[in-house]
Design brief:
With 299 residues, the protein is α/β, with parallel strands linked by helices. The protein is built from 9 helices and 13 strands.
Length: 299
Amino acid sequence: MISVRYDEIALKSRFVRNRFEKILTGNMDRVLRRDFDGNFRIRRGYGRIYIDSASHSESFSEEELRIARRISKVFGVVSADVSVKMELDLEENARRIAEIFENVKGRTFAVRVKRTGRHSFTSMDAARIIGREVVKKGGMVDLKNPEVEISVEIRDSDLYLITDSFRGFRGLPVGTQERVLCILSDEKSLLSSWYALKRGCDIDVLMNPEFSWMLDVLSYWASYREIRSFESDGNLDEMLENAYESGYKAIFCSISSDELDRYSELLRKRKMPVFMPLLPFSGDEIEKKLLLIKGEVDG
C-alpha cells in the first residue's frame, strides 16, 4: 500500500480540512486514472491518505513504485511512502521486519518510529524491540550515521513498515484556491505558472503560441484539471494590458527582479493583484528550477 502524508492541510479548520482533503483525493484519483491502468482504492485516514492495490498484495510491483513516485508530484503531498501494513503485535512485527531487512548483516542501521494513538509502550520501546531482532540478523546499531534507516509508523492498531519513500513538493492541492490567469510570454513563464498551481490555484493561460508546448507540462502538474488557453501574439506589455480587462481575480506573470523597473509604470495600472513569484530568484536559480520541473515530467 501507499501512505500519503500532507502538512499544510492539517492546519485548517475541520470544515476546510475536509474540503481540501476531498480535492486532494480527487486530484490523486484523476492522476491514477489518467496515467495508470491498475485498479486502486483511495481512502482517507486521520492525517493520512492511503492508496490500496485491488490485489491486496503485500509486495509492490515496479508499477506500484512508479505510482508512488507520480503521486509525490501532486501538489499538497509531503511524501508518498510505499508501506507494508501489519496488524500491531510488536514482537511478531519485529521478527517480520528483521526478516525483510536481513541484508543488513554487517551494516549499521537505525530504527525510526513514529507513533499515533494510545499504546502500552513508547516509540523508543518499539525501536528497541525491533532493533533487537535486527541485531540478531547481524546488523549493528548506529543512531547517528546509519547505513540503513528502518522507518516505522504505528497508528492505533496498525503498524506500517515504510520500504520506499518519495518526497513531495508540498503546497496546496490544485483547486482549493481561486482560478487565476497566467501569462505565458517567455520560457520562464512556465515556472511562474507552476508556482500558481503550487499555491492551489486553478489556472487559465494567456499565451504566445510559441509557448503552447507548456500546456502539457502544466497539465501534468495541475493533476489534469481543466486549463483554458487564449492566444496572443503581443509582447508581455500588451498581454498584461489585455489581462487587466479579463475579469480574473489575479494574474501571475514571469517578471523577474532585473525586469521590474521596466514594467513599473504598467504595473501601476493594474486592476487586480499581479503576482510575480520569480522576483526572489536569480537567473541561474530560475534556470535550475525550470530544469527540475521539466525533468520531473520527463522522468
